[in-house]
Amino acid sequence: MTPPDINDIRAAADRIAGAVVRTPFLLSRTLSEIIGAEVWLKFENLQFTAAYKERGALNKLLQLTGEERARGVIAASAGNHAQAVAYHGRRLGIPVTIVMPTSTPLMKVAQTEEHGARVVLHGDRFDDAYARARQMEEAEGLVFVHPFDDPAIVAGTGTIAIEMLSQVPELDTLVVPIGGGGLISGVAIAARTLKPEVEIVGVEAELYPSMKNVVEGASQAIGGDTLAEGIAVKEPGKLTRAIIKDKVDRIELVSERDLEHAVALLVAIEKTVVEGAGAAGLAHLLGAPVAYKGRKVGTVLCGGNIDTHLLANVLIRELVRCGRIARLRIGAQDRPGALASITACFFEAGVNIIETNHQRIFSKLPAKDTVIEVECEARDAEAIEALVKRLEAKGFDVTRAALD
User: Fold this and answer.
1) Which of 162, 290, 309, 399 is buried deepest, with most CB atoms within 10 A?
2) pLDDT tens digits for range 249-265
């Protein structure tokens, strides 16, 4: 496959104009202060299907012949690519089939079906779904729309860099998430042409260093449950790996803790919902601020499709890490008035009790004693510390449950 050039990307920009959102590219003053750099955010999570994938999918669909459109298209995806192909396929009157692993959350299956696609559930893993989609492509004469390893897909994603650099031409660094490599490949081709001196940094989840392994000849382990499932790719693209090796300066890895922190900060500071993959670029900046001090950095919030229950867990865990929520194990004599004495300390410290639990059996304390577990919330970490000191001053033994 021949990689696209800037002319292909400009043609893609013209082709998809008006059918995808020209998303905001905004300076975050607060994040800039935290990181010590000028941080610009490209809000691709504000696309209709909440991800940048629409750009490549639409560019591909618009270049199909009339005969190919009539035959219909097929894709393998458990997430954003599925919805992008389904949505724009319905808009253009193209029959769409999406093959998803059987483990795909029902919400994502339903969302894809709501866009008019035929959904086929097959296999436990993406690789199984991909193989099945390829079989159906041949058996039913469908056109396969690859999620990343296709010049038309790459050209569509490159339109993001054109928008970023046209609005803020003084950017000196681009930090972009990497899964299969389609996003950063398009961004890198456009950016290298428009501003050759710009530094381009790719970011992968620590548990899925697939592209880093391929490009750098490393052999780090791949696999595990990551918040950034959108970039949890075991086998990166062949076209994209060549582009990345040629045009990307380096690839960094981010921890699950930094991914959670980035997702939570974007909710708290920017009031925007971003999935783990979409927050990977910011997660790297937060984890390595010294490397970007004084620079003008643009990063892509490439998707916002995160399960609401998972998002709630991330936000609560962030409150625990910053000390606003704590679980205290308080050892006390099992006698009348003990609990009242403990709750009085909470009242005096201005700390709210969320939940309590008495543990008399599963404890190493003497039989006459009890452990009272209290989950509590305060205005800041200092209030919790003050509470612990009050409890200890009254003779209670206090330990804090750790998150990690």
Assistant:
1) 162
2) 999 999 999 999 999 99
